[in-house]
Amino acid sequence: MKFLIATGILSAACAVSGFVPVTPSFGVSNTVGKSSVSSPSRSFIARGRMEMTATADSTAVKQVPHGGTLVNLMLESDEEKAAAIAKADVTLQATPRQLCDLELLMNGGFSPLTGFMDEATYDNVVDNMELPDGLLFSIPVVFDTDDEDLKPGMTALIKDGDRDIATIEFTDKYTPDKPKECLKVYGTSEIEHPGSLMVATERGKYYMGGKVTGLNLPIRDFPCKTPAEVRAELPAGDVVAFQCRNPVHRAHYELFTRALDAENVEDDGVVLVHPTCGPTQADDIPGTVRYKTYEVLKKETDNEKVFWEYLPYSMHMAGPREAIQHMMIRKNYGCTHFIIGRDMAGSKSSVTGEDFYGAYEAQDLAKELSERLGVKTVPSLNLVYTEEEGYVTADDASEKGLTQKKLSGTKFRQMLRGGEDIPEWFAFKSVVEVLRENQ
User: Fold this and answer.
1) Of the N and C termini of the chain, which has fewer Cβ atoms inside 10 Å?
2) Which fold would CATH assign to domain 7-214?
3) Is domain 227-437 annotated with CATH 1.10.10.10?
4) What pTM did the predictor assign?
5) Contact yes or no for 386/404 (Cβ under 8 A)
6) Residues 6+ apart with CB under 8 A from 275
7) What is the pLDDT of residues 154-177, one digit of tens each?
């Protein structure tokens, strides 16, 4: 991903956000440990409160929600919604990223959170990758603003256009240490990382903590079922989650279907393909187009062992920490296993083109925290296509001396734009057609 930012613009952005780049440093040892921060007075974490509900369907699957309770912050009746709206002091429009975070707070995808993180919770997640009670949580969930008039004690009505989405009862307002946040979460505070760039140039100067009350889920071009709805449709056995933010090609399909053969997956296991369709890197294919590719592929493959759902999540490209965040979210959706890909949620420097994370850093951290998180890992196979045997592991291809066929992503995009035939061993014909129609 290439960000061409003039020095003057960058300096101005850093000045506005209070952001000064810090020397890169990333290590698991700096992010995993017991909290040294005492619990805040109003930490928005489910503790059996009235607004926390879990349906029978949500507990029918094998996996328990993160923290033990599946959060549901949605009001049901028009009277309840009207009363909540009447308490609002101010009306705000949500950004696309805020809208994703709100939806996952309201529907329980971020269980056990019941609102945006206050300063003590934010600090603990940044420093220790934990909530104040010691429960794993790897990336802070914050409400950002530049509004000097927003104060603790106020209630905001959050809208998406004309649609009422939620109210937030603000409890505190703080100025985050953004360089430290980026250094801990992304492993670097250099602006050439897309996550650091987002924190520095997109997020407001202040973060605010507050309790969320859900009014209406956003209306999207792609359907995003709640964790309770997904759980109600999954079988009671092992569920292997596959996270992606790109169209699924042949190698991906082979990878997640073969994951069911892993030694730690039961015979009756199924795969949940759960792509993120929210904001991501600037040069990624738009979520609406990706959704269309998944739908045609679902129809083409028609595999009863593969379930397809969509996640309204905003990507951070945070590598190892984001792998943990994805595992936690899929746990709330009922998944028992998670496929960890090579350099999962990784990104490259927009200046040097070098990877920010090692190829197996995400896998290593996921394995280390798997038992504590309650989600088993399934490392992704390194598959290659061969003329003689189709898709096999790279090791098998090497040992047998098989003839490998390769097609780079760059070459694929060139062929796509040029109208050339794409080999079907590389990409599904239905997916290629959608991509060509939406270039």
Assistant:
1) C
2) Sulfate adenylyltransferase (3.10.400)
3) no
4) 0.85
5) yes
6) 243, 244, 245, 290, 291, 294, 310, 311
7) 999 999 999 999 999 999 999 999
